[in-house]
Each structure stands twice: as C-alpha cells, then as structure tokens.
Specification:
By secondary structure, the chain is an alpha+beta fold. It is built from five helices and ten strands; from the N terminus they run αααββββββββαββα. It has a six-stranded antiparallel β-sheet, covered by helices on one side. The longest helix is centred in the N-terminal third of the chain and has 49 residues, at 2-50.
C-alpha cells in the first residue's frame, strides 16, 4: 500500500516536472520565433533603405540641389555687388559674365562655341568615325539678343557609305515609343572622306522634347530610322547621360 502511494507520488512529480519543462520550452521557442521575426523584419527594412532611388528621383534630387546651390551663389553675388556699389557711391549694377556653379559643372566637358552675334552653343563632341544613325542634342544661349530665352536643338542623322533619305526616327525607351518627326526639305547631306552624312539640325518642338525626356529618363534606349528599320542603334549610357545633362542645362538657361 505504502509502496503504491510512493510510486504514485513519484509519477506525479515526473509529470509535473515534464509539464514545467514543456511550458518553459514552449515559451522559449515562442520568444525565439519572435526574435527571428523581428530580425528578419529589420533586415528587410535595411535592405529597402539601401535600394537606390529611380533615375527620375535622382534627376529631381540633383536638380533640386543644383538649384539650391545656384540660388545661394546668386544671393552671395548680389550681396557682394551691392556692397561694391555702396562703396562706389551707387551706380548701375553690372551683369556678371561668370556662369553659376551648377551650369559651369554641366558644361565642363562640352564644347562651348560662341557665334559672331554673341550667342553661345553648348554641345558634346560627336563621334564622326561611327557609322549608322545618331542623335546629338545641344543648347544655344542667346546672349546676342537681350531677353531671349535659351533654345534647345537636335542634330539627327545617318552616316554611311551613301546618303539616306528619311523623315522620322523612332525612340523606344522602356515600354514606350515616341517619334521624332523632321520638317520636309530640312535635311542636309555632305560627303567627306568617302563617308556620306545625311542629317537634320533643327530647333526642338514640343513633341521632340518629350522624346528627348524619354531618352534622358530611360535605362535602355533604341533608336531606328522609320522606313529603314535595319538602321537602328542602342544608345550607350554615355549618350543617355548627354541627353540628361543637355536637358538640365536647358532648364537652367531658359528662364
């Protein structure tokens, strides 16, 4: 009888101990799972924070920072000019010939070409050795005409063994497609060292500017001559950057 009671007590103690261990293990496991979930959540948030911004966001931020720097520089320049005028007893302010810092940065690797009437053209070097279709934007600052805004221009053409007559170039960037349409009778042709170049050099219309914006914002861009689809080209990242910088420069100078 006593033996049976002792056996019962031992069994109860074993059951209580096992239950305690199970209870502790359950809560330890639950705490471990919660810790792992919090760890994974923190890792995901950190990974999202490290995702680079889109090209459009980068462009907007760069433009905002440059505009801020330009305004600060102009404010300092005005203050210095006002101080100089005060020292000289007043007088008419002189327009500074120095371009703002952001514009100077943009044009640092461009050709800056003055014209006889005082206008200034800003453009990148062209690769005259490369055959095929090409696009090259540039900006003209109309310093020879006081008050005239800057203008955006586009050179579009084909370089090959013979001339090529065309009137449209399709721009395919991402999922969209836009069309560059050139005015009739505006094409020029020239043969040099056995290579014939057929090209347009025109002021940019609203539709053309939209297409150029597509190029500047895209990662992969294909251009092709409509009616001669075998004449196509994938723009390099450098060429895309040229479009982006030219459009940024145009935004800075047109106002």
């Amino acid at each position: 009888m006593v033996k049976n009671v002792l056996i019962g007590i031992v069994c109860m103690l074993l059951l209580v101990t096992a239950g305690s261990f199970a209870y502790v293990e359950y809560h330890n496991t639950k705490a471990h799972i919660r810790t792992e979930n919090e760890k994974h959540k923190a890792e995901e948030e950190e990974a999202r924070a490290q995702v680079p911004p889109t090209l459009r966001e980068q462009w907007k931020e760069q433009s905002r920072q440059r505009e801020k720097a330009r305004l600060e520089k102009e404010k300092k320049a005005r203050s210095a000019q006002n101080e100089q005028n005060d020292q000289n007893g007043g007088g008419q302010r002189k327009e500074s010939a120095e371009v703002s810092e952001d514009v100077a940065h943009l044009v640092s690797d461009m050709y800056v070409t003055p014209s006889p009437n005082g206008d200034i053209a800003y453009e990148y070097d062209s690769n005259e050795e490369e055959h095929g279709v090409f696009l090259r934007p540039y900006v003209v600052e109309h310093k020879g005409t006081p008050g005239a805004p800057a203008s955006l221009h586009l050179i579009a053409g084909y370089r090959g063994d013979s001339g090529l007559d065309f009137g449209k170039i399709a721009v395919k960037g991402g999922q969209s497609e836009k069309m560059l349409v050139f005015p009739l009778g505006a094409m020029k042709q020239e043969e040099k060292n056995g290579v014939t170049e057929s090209w347009y050099d025109v002021p940019v219309s609203a539709g053309m500017e939209d297409a150029m914006q597509e190029i500047a914002m895209a990662v992969n861009v294909k251009i092709e001559i409509v009616g001669h689809e075998q004449e196509n080209k994938i723009l390099s990242q450098t060429e895309i950057a040229h479009f982006r910088n030219i459009l940024l420069l145009y935004d800075k100078l047109k106002d």
